Amino acid sequence: MGILPVLNIFERGLMSKYKQVIATMIVMLLAGFGSTATTQLPTSIPVSSVIFLDRSGLSFPNGVEDDAIKNRISLDIIGICSLDKNVAFLYGLSSVGSVLLRTEDGGLQWQEVMQSDPRSQVRWVGFADAKTGWALVEDYWGEAGGPIALYLTTDTGKTWKPLSIVPTITRYWSFVNIQLFDAQKGQIDLLDGQDSEALSEYVFTWTTVDGGRTWQETNRRYVSQDAIKDMQLPHKLDRSAGKDGSQWEYDDRSDPEKIIVKRRLSANQPLTSVAIQKYWDYKNKRIVPR
Q1: What does pTM read for this prediction?
Q2: Tens-digit pLDDT profile for residues 70-99
Q3: 3-state secondary structure of 94
Q4: Closest CA to 240 of 84, 102, 110
Q5: Could you tell me if residue 13 is left (phi over 0), alpha (psi between -120 and 50 degrees) or otherwise beta?
Q6: How many CB atoms lie within 10 A of CB 9?
Q7: What is the distance in angstroms between the CA of the first residue and the CA of the last residue of the chain?
Q8: Are 77 and 90 in contact (CB under 8 A)?
Q9: Is the dihedral of CA 122, 127, 130, 131 positive or negative?
């Protein structure tokens, strides 16, 4: 069956504007699961439309967005990433999707710099240099094995754009780790989690040499469960070091209403703290401080 007849199915209605993405997915399926599979995101549609296309195109679970507008939303922060003593990021998820906040005044004020992707979370943020960074957005509310989307910034994290979807081999993969070597080279390790009771499991390594635009499978090996635990990125990355020697950390457990962000200008300096409200408002599809 060719690609064009399949696309004719979506000629009418809401799905018609997604034919480019559907074509890409069908090409991958017809080609089989090869070692050079890669998907580059079109820039004309939101990345969440790509991620959740195979789950009936829902942008939000029923009632979630309306509830967020009427009531406050809670931030679930799972990581912090800092560039220097002034610029840092908090990331994770909320009831309306992924969350990425940025400060440029040492933590006094924070603002959302990436619009939420429904049903997803920002799992990791890292920078190759002072300007170029990646954000990894993964499915959080869907079934196991949802796609991983990569975002790119080239302006110290002020703005982010969808870059690519990292290919996955099996339906039951789970994220292990990511490394950003420089602005062009990086690596992501994924686990084939079909049998969580097995003593060893397959770990797939995908690498990029063009800044995350395309990915190739470069390694596939059996790894013991103990070794996987050593490889695995911690669920919460609550500390980060800036490129100028500054140190940042956050605490979201001590106070049920606040997130405490702590900063040390250098190794010999004392920690200073600022408090961020854990509950924010949702207006015009953006999260904003109350």
Answers
A1: 0.77
A2: 678 889 999 999 999 999 999 999 888 899
A3: strand
A4: 84
A5: left
A6: 11
A7: 53
A8: yes
A9: negative
